[in-house]
Amino acid sequence: MSKFIIRRVFLAALIILFGAFIVYAVIRALPSSYVETIARQRATMPNSKSYADWVAELNALFRLDTDVFTGFAGWLGDAIRGEFGNSWSYGIKVTEKFADVIWYTVALNIITFILQIAIAIPLGIMAARKQYSKMDYAITFFAMVGISLPSFFLSTMLKYVFSINLGWFDLYGIVGRYHEQLSSWGKLLDMAHHLVLPVTTLTLLSIGGLMRFTRTNMLEVLGADYIRTARAKGLPENKVINRHAFRNTLIPLVSYMSYLLPSMFAGSMITETLYQIPGIGYIAFGAIRAGDIPFTMFYSVFSIVLTQISLLIADMMYAVVDPRVRIN
Fold first, then answer.
1. How many CB atoms sit inside 10 A of residue 290's CB?
2. Which of 112, 210, 238, 272 could make a disulfide contact with 120, Cβ separation 3.0–4.6 Å?
3. pTM of the predicted model, to two decimals?
4. Which of the four pLDDT bands, split at 50, 70 and 90, describes residue 320?
């Protein structure tokens, strides 16, 4: 196991390094530029240097006057020491801004993940047990709707119905107008109230794929010989499903769910932006628009690292859910 983990960590490090370089090169090629924006603002000040002089000075400060390989090597050296620089857009250290906003995204995605598992897997199993029934068709239709709807359309519809027409929720934000006047418990409830629509959006968009995946794998397991043997021995149907079939369905589900966490963090960028939730996705979107290389690089590498960690955990979980799988 230790040799396997060492090999995977080494491979993950190479993937992170290569992915970070690709992201850095793409960001350097973006048409938007924070440097040009700031140089234009400073050039308009009284007794200021020219726009060209400001651009040259700022490019030298941020290593943008070098080639992409030299610039990336400088960024990598700083990143290894834990120095990701100051965010050009927000004016504070990247790690400090990240620590301020990450918990909104963590709360949003943990709640979504729990709801997704609690809803999608039981419905997928129910659809497989009642194949070609009205229940199966209804669940399949619901899953396909969730898979097909774009996040901006679903968010707009939910806000139109529950915010504009019914007035149950605010259109935007994580807290209400009188948040600071509430007690500690009231502040928590206020934030939870503002997370209802974003969580609903992410949950409805994500349960369809897991539901279909669970149904497909459960149908394959229910057709196996050992399931027919268990039924022939007279075991109760619930015991056949819960003890024998579901355990073997978990094996491919572990592989599928390893992608859920990084994919939800990526998908929450759109949802956070639409609802203006000040999480890491919304903040990163603003940084990308402004050409903020330090923050965008940190967020991109964070996403790559999160994906690699999820895949490593999934590989180790195989041995937990299936005793036949052993890593040597």
1. 20
2. 210
3. 0.76
4. low
